[in-house]
Protein backbone atom coordinates (compact mmCIF):
# COMPACT_ATOMS: atom_id res chain seq x y z
CA UNK A 1 0.00 0.00 0.00
CA UNK A 2 1.33 3.45 -0.95
CA UNK A 3 0.73 6.14 1.67
CA UNK A 4 -0.90 9.34 0.42
CA UNK A 5 0.60 12.68 1.32
CA UNK A 6 -1.62 15.07 3.27
CA UNK A 7 -1.83 17.68 0.48
CA UNK A 8 -2.76 15.01 -2.07
CA UNK A 9 -5.42 13.56 0.24
CA UNK A 10 -6.91 17.03 0.85
CA UNK A 11 -6.95 17.70 -2.88
CA UNK A 12 -8.76 14.41 -3.57
CA UNK A 13 -11.29 14.98 -0.79
CA UNK A 14 -11.93 18.57 -1.93
CA UNK A 15 -12.54 17.47 -5.52
CA UNK A 16 -14.82 14.63 -4.44
CA UNK A 17 -16.99 17.02 -2.41
CA UNK A 18 -17.57 19.45 -5.25
CA UNK A 19 -20.96 19.01 -6.89
CA UNK A 20 -20.73 22.33 -8.71
CA UNK A 21 -22.36 22.22 -12.11
CA UNK A 22 -20.68 24.29 -14.80
CA UNK A 23 -21.80 25.24 -18.27
CA UNK A 24 -20.32 22.95 -20.92
CA UNK A 25 -19.29 25.38 -23.68
CA UNK A 26 -20.36 24.50 -27.19
CA UNK A 27 -19.38 27.93 -28.50
CA UNK A 28 -16.83 30.44 -27.26
CA UNK A 29 -16.86 34.03 -28.45
CA UNK A 30 -14.08 36.48 -27.65
CA UNK A 31 -14.07 40.16 -28.46
CA UNK A 32 -10.66 41.71 -27.77
CA UNK A 33 -9.00 44.95 -28.81
CA UNK A 34 -9.94 48.44 -29.75
CA UNK A 35 -8.24 51.71 -30.41
CA UNK A 36 -8.33 55.44 -29.81
CA UNK A 37 -8.47 55.01 -26.03
CA UNK A 38 -11.22 52.37 -25.96
CA UNK A 39 -10.39 48.73 -25.18
CA UNK A 40 -12.58 45.66 -24.66
CA UNK A 41 -11.64 42.21 -23.37
CA UNK A 42 -14.71 39.94 -23.49
CA UNK A 43 -15.16 36.19 -23.35
CA UNK A 44 -18.54 34.48 -23.62
CA UNK A 45 -19.20 30.75 -23.42
CA UNK A 46 -22.49 29.44 -24.74
CA UNK A 47 -23.96 25.98 -24.23
CA UNK A 48 -27.20 24.06 -23.84
CA UNK A 49 -28.75 22.15 -20.98
CA UNK A 50 -31.64 19.67 -21.24
CA UNK A 51 -35.05 21.16 -20.57
CA UNK A 52 -37.25 18.08 -20.86
CA UNK A 53 -39.22 16.54 -23.71
CA UNK A 54 -36.10 16.49 -25.89
CA UNK A 55 -35.68 20.27 -25.94
CA UNK A 56 -32.78 22.27 -24.58
CA UNK A 57 -32.25 25.79 -23.38
CA UNK A 58 -29.29 27.99 -24.19
CA UNK A 59 -27.18 29.49 -21.41
CA UNK A 60 -24.30 31.95 -21.62
CA UNK A 61 -21.64 33.06 -19.16
CA UNK A 62 -19.64 36.23 -19.82
CA UNK A 63 -16.69 38.02 -18.34
CA UNK A 64 -15.99 41.46 -19.80
CA UNK A 65 -13.67 44.36 -19.11
CA UNK A 66 -14.11 47.75 -20.78
CA UNK A 67 -11.52 50.49 -20.52
CA UNK A 68 -12.35 53.92 -21.95
CA UNK A 69 -10.18 57.02 -21.58
CA UNK A 70 -13.37 59.13 -21.55
CA UNK A 71 -15.85 56.66 -20.13
CA UNK A 72 -16.97 58.97 -17.34
CA UNK A 73 -17.07 62.68 -16.49
CA UNK A 74 -15.40 64.28 -13.50
CA UNK A 75 -17.03 66.96 -11.32
CA UNK A 76 -16.12 69.68 -13.80
CA UNK A 77 -17.56 67.74 -16.74
CA UNK A 78 -14.20 66.77 -18.22
CA UNK A 79 -13.37 63.28 -19.46
CA UNK A 80 -12.24 60.77 -16.87
CA UNK A 81 -11.00 57.24 -17.50
CA UNK A 82 -13.39 54.41 -16.73
CA UNK A 83 -12.47 50.76 -16.24
CA UNK A 84 -15.41 48.40 -15.70
CA UNK A 85 -15.66 44.64 -15.32
CA UNK A 86 -18.71 42.41 -15.33
CA UNK A 87 -19.28 38.70 -14.83
CA UNK A 88 -22.81 37.82 -15.84
CA UNK A 89 -25.15 35.28 -17.37
CA UNK A 90 -28.04 34.77 -19.81
CA UNK A 91 -30.72 32.08 -19.78
CA UNK A 92 -32.73 31.66 -22.99
CA UNK A 93 -35.74 30.72 -20.86
CA UNK A 94 -35.84 34.41 -19.86
CA UNK A 95 -34.31 35.89 -23.02
CA UNK A 96 -35.29 34.54 -26.43
CA UNK A 97 -32.68 36.82 -28.06
CA UNK A 98 -30.02 34.22 -27.18
CA UNK A 99 -31.83 31.50 -29.14
CA UNK A 100 -32.30 33.95 -32.03
CA UNK A 101 -28.58 34.82 -31.97
CA UNK A 102 -27.60 31.15 -32.19
CA UNK A 103 -30.04 30.50 -35.04
CA UNK A 104 -28.63 33.51 -36.89
CA UNK A 105 -25.07 32.18 -36.41
CA UNK A 106 -26.01 28.88 -38.07
CA UNK A 107 -27.47 30.75 -41.05
CA UNK A 108 -24.21 32.61 -41.85
CA UNK A 109 -22.50 31.63 -45.11
CA UNK A 110 -19.41 29.44 -44.82
CA UNK A 111 -16.06 31.18 -44.49
CA UNK A 112 -13.86 31.20 -47.57
CA UNK A 113 -10.20 32.09 -47.94
CA UNK A 114 -9.28 35.27 -49.85
CA UNK A 115 -7.92 34.66 -53.34
CA UNK A 116 -4.11 34.84 -53.59
CA UNK A 117 -2.81 38.38 -53.62
CA UNK A 118 -5.85 39.97 -51.95
CA UNK A 119 -5.40 41.45 -48.51
CA UNK A 120 -7.72 43.05 -46.05
CA UNK A 121 -6.74 45.39 -43.22
CA UNK A 122 -8.95 46.89 -40.54
CA UNK A 123 -7.57 49.04 -37.74
CA UNK A 124 -8.90 50.35 -34.44
CA UNK A 125 -11.37 47.53 -34.25
CA UNK A 126 -11.73 44.67 -31.81
CA UNK A 127 -11.16 41.14 -33.07
CA UNK A 128 -14.14 38.82 -32.70
CA UNK A 129 -13.31 35.11 -32.55
CA UNK A 130 -15.98 32.41 -32.66
CA UNK A 131 -14.89 28.88 -31.69
CA UNK A 132 -16.83 25.64 -31.90
CA UNK A 133 -16.62 22.26 -33.62
CA UNK A 134 -17.47 21.22 -37.12
CA UNK A 135 -17.70 17.85 -38.81
CA UNK A 136 -15.00 17.01 -41.35
CA UNK A 137 -14.73 13.53 -42.86
CA UNK A 138 -17.04 12.20 -40.14
CA UNK A 139 -14.95 13.54 -37.24
CA UNK A 140 -15.47 16.48 -34.93
CA UNK A 141 -12.92 19.15 -35.76
CA UNK A 142 -12.31 22.38 -33.82
CA UNK A 143 -13.04 25.48 -35.88
CA UNK A 144 -12.07 29.05 -35.05
CA UNK A 145 -12.96 32.16 -37.06
CA UNK A 146 -11.40 35.54 -36.17
CA UNK A 147 -12.49 38.76 -37.81
CA UNK A 148 -12.26 42.50 -37.27
CA UNK A 149 -14.91 42.92 -39.97
CA UNK A 150 -17.06 40.37 -41.79
CA UNK A 151 -20.14 38.22 -41.32
CA UNK A 152 -19.06 36.69 -38.00
CA UNK A 153 -17.86 39.96 -36.48
CA UNK A 154 -21.07 41.69 -37.58
CA UNK A 155 -23.09 38.74 -36.19
CA UNK A 156 -21.50 39.12 -32.75
CA UNK A 157 -21.87 42.91 -32.66
CA UNK A 158 -25.58 42.61 -33.57
CA UNK A 159 -26.11 39.72 -31.12
CA UNK A 160 -24.26 41.60 -28.38
CA UNK A 161 -26.55 44.61 -28.84
CA UNK A 162 -29.71 42.46 -28.74
CA UNK A 163 -28.45 40.65 -25.61
CA UNK A 164 -27.68 43.82 -23.59
CA UNK A 165 -30.94 43.79 -21.60
CA UNK A 166 -30.64 40.05 -20.95
CA UNK A 167 -27.44 39.87 -18.88
CA UNK A 168 -28.02 39.18 -15.19
CA UNK A 169 -25.56 39.05 -12.30
CA UNK A 170 -26.86 35.81 -10.79
CA UNK A 171 -26.21 32.48 -12.52
CA UNK A 172 -29.17 30.55 -13.92
CA UNK A 173 -30.55 27.55 -12.06
CA UNK A 174 -30.11 24.11 -13.61
CA UNK A 175 -31.94 21.29 -11.86
CA UNK A 176 -32.51 23.63 -8.91
CA UNK A 177 -28.84 24.57 -8.50
CA UNK A 178 -27.08 27.74 -9.66
CA UNK A 179 -24.38 27.16 -12.23
CA UNK A 180 -20.82 27.57 -10.94
CA UNK A 181 -18.60 30.03 -12.78
CA UNK A 182 -16.29 28.54 -15.40
CA UNK A 183 -14.78 31.88 -16.45
CA UNK A 184 -12.39 34.04 -14.45
CA UNK A 185 -11.36 37.68 -14.72
CA UNK A 186 -10.06 38.84 -18.08
CA UNK A 187 -6.44 39.73 -18.60
CA UNK A 188 -5.27 43.26 -17.95
CA UNK A 189 -5.84 45.76 -20.69
CA UNK A 190 -2.89 47.69 -22.09
CA UNK A 191 -2.22 50.93 -20.26
Mean pLDDT: 84
Q: Determine the structural class based on helices, strands and strand pairing.
A: alpha+beta
Helix content: 10-25%
Number of strands: 8
Strand content: 35-45%
Task: Give me the strand/helix succession.
Answer: HEEEEHEEHEE
Low-confidence stretches: 1-17
**Coarse shape:** flat
The strand line-up of the biggest sheet is: 4-3-2-1-5-6
Question: Could you give a short account of the major beta sheet?
Answer: 6 strands, antiparallel
Radius of gyration using CA atoms only: 20 Å
What is the distance, rounded to the nearest whole angstrom, between the alpha carbons of the first and last residues? 55 Å
The tally of helices reads 3
Explain this structure.
- This protein is α+β, with helices and mostly antiparallel strands and about 190 residues long.
- The strands form 2 sheets. It has a 6-stranded antiparallel beta sheet, with helices on one face. A two-stranded antiparallel sheet has the order 7-8.
- β3 and β4 (about 80-90) form a beta hairpin.
- Helices cover about 20% and strands about 40% of the residues.
- The chain has 3 helices and 8 strands; from the N terminus they run αββββαββαββ.
- The longest helix has 13 residues, at about 150-165.
- The chain has helices spanning about 5-15, 95-105, 150-165, and strands at about 25-35, 40-50, 55-75, 80-90, 125-135, 140-145, 175, 175-180.
- The protein starts with 5 loop residues before the first helix and ends in a 13-residue tail after the last strand.
